[in-house]
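re: the backbone from monday

yeah here it is again, tokenized this time
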């Protein structure tokens, strides 16, 4: 399964990427752990995950082929 991954703000800086594609099958929580293993520095930051542009508060979501997961740090501004 291919998952499109978007990184915003400082997380894009830390990973050196705005967008990547990765093969993954499983839960959103497992995906988060996989990405933190691949990019250990992102674990130092607070961030939220969205799947297909919907914020996901829980870890029970199972990812499907073609899903888009965004790693979003807190935003501020006016």
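seq for it, each position gets an aa:
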């Amino acid at each position: 399964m291919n998952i499109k991954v978007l990184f915003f703000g400082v997380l894009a800086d830390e990973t050196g990427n705005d967008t990547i594609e990765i093969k993954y099958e499983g839960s959103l929580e497992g995906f988060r752990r996989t990405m933190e293993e691949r990019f250990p520095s992102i674990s130092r930051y607070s961030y939220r995950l969205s799947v297909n542009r919907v914020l996901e508060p829980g870890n029970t979501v199972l990812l499907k082929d073609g899903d888009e997961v965004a790693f979003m740090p807190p935003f501020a501004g006016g």
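The chain has a mean pLDDT of 94. The chain is about 20% helix and 30% strand.
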